[in-house]
Amino acid sequence: MYKAVIISGYLTHLGDNIIPFLDKKTDLYVHTWNGNDNERWIHKLNRYKKFCRKLYVKTEDTFYEKKLHSYFYSTWQAVNLIKDIDKYDIIIKFKPNLETEKIEVNLNLEEYFHKAYIQSYPMLKNISKEECFYGSIYYETMDERLFFGYPLAFKKVFHILYKELDEFMLKLDNKLLDKFNEKYEGSIFWKNFIENRGVCLIQHTDLSIPNNI
Predict the structure, then answer these.
(1) CA-CA distances (angstroms) from residue 195 to 9, 63, 141, 200?
(2) Which residues have CB under 8 Å from 52's CB, separation 6+?
(3) What is the residue-level pLDDT of the chain in tens, covering all 213 positions?
(4) Residue 124: left if φ>0, alpha if ψ -120 to 50, beta else—which one?
(5) Could you give the CA distance from residue 208 to residue 189 in angstroms, rounded to a whole number?
(6) By C-alpha distance, which of 47, 79, 48, 54 is closest to 2?
(7) Cis preceding-peptide flag for 151 (omega within 30 of 0)
(8) E runs forming strands in the chain
């Protein structure tokens, strides 16, 4: 199985819990920011070169004022570092600040699609497993720190021009601010943006993400 692992945003607390996702059939794509003591974490990335096939890193100076916008833009950049996305069987979105030594994950995503297909029939009748993200789904939210998908789903969400990304992102943020009339959890934004791009969210029933509070 050929995999791509993408990391975005600041790399604070990057640790060895990423190692189980890496092997010699896996490429690691990282977009991160300069400053804020991030250089030492960028340097730490070199430790993981030996565990994967190739490592690609892009750094920029931050320019969005809001952390939500910076993080989502950084994820967009990380996905678009991949030149031939269709060569991968699975893509993993990973955030370094998962406070656990090891994360056990079943990457047989078809198993979870099949469960969802049966339990929600006929709602997924005209949707393929490739058009979904798989992760921890809560009420009106998803945990954006760790999720999985096929190339098609990542292309549907992130293969857009920067001008479109910026427009869609700011428009959705303003819509949610108006809806809740207060600051809201960023996971709500992720779920809405993804579903607005035509990608479904499927519960990975064996996934346990730490410090999800």
Answers:
(1) 22, 26, 11, 6
(2) 5, 22, 23, 24, 26, 27, 28
(3) 999 999 999 999 898 989 999 999 999 999 999 988 899 999 999 999 999 999 999 999 999 999 999 999 999 999 999 999 999 999 999 998 887 777 888 999 999 999 999 999 999 999 999 999 999 998 889 999 999 999 999 999 999 999 999 999 999 999 999 999 888 999 999 999 999 999 999 999 998 887 654
(4) alpha
(5) 21
(6) 54
(7) no
(8) 3-8, 26-33, 54-60, 90-94, 132-138, 141-149, 200-203
Helices (H), 81-203: 109-119, 151-158, 162-180, 186-196
Q: CB neighbours of 185 closer than 8 A, spacing ≥ 6?
A: 141
Query: 94: closest CA among 131, 149, 42?
Result: 149
Please give the helix or strand (H or E) that residue 78 lies within, else none: helix 67-80
Q: Where on the phi/psi map is residue 13: left (φ > 0), alpha (ψ -120 to 50), or beta?
A: left
Relative to beta strand 141-149, strand 90-94 is antiparallel
All domains of the chain in start order, with CATH: 3-203 (3.90.550)
Burial of residue 112 (CB within 10 Å: 0-12, 13-18, 19+) is buried
**Rounded Cα–Cα distance for residues 140 and 105 (Å):** 23
pTM value is 0.95
State how far the Cα of 20 lies from the Cα of 51, in Å rounded to an integer. 9
In the block, residue with structure tokens 């967009």: 76
User: How many other CB atoms sit within 10 Å of the CB of residue 100?
Assistant: 12
